[in-house]
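Hi L.,

You mentioned the student needs an example of a multi-chain input paired with its predicted structure. This one should do, with 559 residues in total across all chains.
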Amino acid sequence: MKKERAYIWMAVPALIIFFVFHTYPALQGIFYSFTDWKGYGDWNFVGFKNYLNVFQDDRAGSAYLFTFKFAIVSTILVNIFSLFIAVGLNTKIKFQKTLRAVYFLPNILSILIVGYIFNFIFAHFLPQIADSLGITALSKNILGNPDLAWIGIVIVAVWQAVAFNTILYLAGLATISEDLYEAASIDGAGAWKKFWKITFPMIAPFFTINMVLAMKNFLMVFDHIIALTGGGPGQATESISLLIYRGGFQGGEFAYQSANAVIYFIVILVVSVVQIKILQRREVQA
Amino acid sequence: MFGKRINWPVTVLLMLGSLLILFPLYLTITIALKTPKELANSLWALPKEWKWQNFLDAIELTNFFSALTNSLIITVSVVILTLLTNSLVAYAIARNMHKRFYKFLFYYFVSAMFIPFPIIMLPIVKQTSNWGMDNLTGLIFLYIVYGLAFNVFIYVGYIKSIPLELEDAAIIDGATRWQVFWRVIFPLLMPMNATVGILTTLWAWNDFMLPLIILSDPDLATLPLVQYIFQSQFSTDYNLAFASYLMALAPMVIVYIFAQKWIISGVMKGSLK
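Structure written out for the whole complex:
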């Protein structure tokens, strides 16, 4: 009986603290989403009015569109690049350890600061090169163009995120036995066939994890945008997180953005679950 | 693997690819050391005369050492306290997973990984400022609490693989449950502690959003937050800005250069769980 009590003392304080600082604020957010609270002063219940308004809000609509466009493109690119880099790093190459260290480097850097550095590259470096090469299409800062700014954010996001996903894929590749490749070689399979018939099916679970994690992280994009565009030009690159932050803290839309955050939560949950279901089905077939 | 010949085409491709990673860093270093005039002449050339003054100006403008101290205090406290508390919670859960309450606890903590931060963001700012927690102590506390979701997940997986016999022997020798944890289990957790420690360091050191919303006093700003606060003052002087970026990135890069093998394998282990 005595040791039972020790376990309770180890776990229950954590439960209480976690509830008070994580679950309780989340519940509060849900509660306020049904009110008209501005973040200060009085409030009244307004039912589902905030939710209906979010659905009719053009600014929220464009934030969702931008965030999804950005997240889908970045997720696909990150997974393509990191898979190929991981396969490359896993073959017998010179300077393997150094190259591995270089490719992981972006993961240890602050996204905000990396974003500021790339901001300079897009604003000054690329236009100057494009100018000297006579490529007029690229001689202006793409971050200043409402149609192209999102591409700049994708580039920075991919540059940074490839590092972590490569490491995950390398962990996956390490689980594949060399015998499989030798057997395939004896059967006369080429490098490409070996990749599609052995490597890719064997790391399918890592592919699932990478796709889900990358998508979830990119849907929450915030730091990149603060550093690169601040949501602009206009509101062309305003992500959902940024909209909730701005509207909630600076726009007096505490309750309204709480409703947006609840919708956002449901969206992320649904996307993650659907992704896991689809990708796991593929795993079984493979 | 051994006996196979070195694949040179892949080596060359990867080396070319790594330039994409190294070039922005090269730019950062060289720009940080140039004068505005030299920068205007050529964006990528090496500086002719190294202008160390940029660093001194950046230190003064951004109050660099104050930010560095804040970042260090936060990261060191968060990592130590996370290792001590999160592993303890995970231990209690891992050893009682057959009981309904602890099983619930496990899923309760782990499911929090799927809750996007913005849903908590607005209320937690009210809560922390009302409770006088809009300072470094509050921030450290929140990192430790929010780390639980992921850390419980990876600690529990690892603790389950530690045989119970070791603990039973210690209990028979008269050790309490607490002694068992600190003397037997915690030392055995070292590989997982390394992983949790590395991931927590990267998170607490580089995080921008939580300091941005929690800290109200600019003197408490962390290194990333300082770059944000001073962005408007940098806008005319890129050399100064890059000197500041470089100083903010440097501590982590230096640690990484010496411990990269360890850091990479730590992150890898965390991802395999």
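You could point out the following to them. Chain A touches chain B through 85 residues (CB under 8 Å). Chain A is about 75% helix and 0% strand.

Best wishes,
N.
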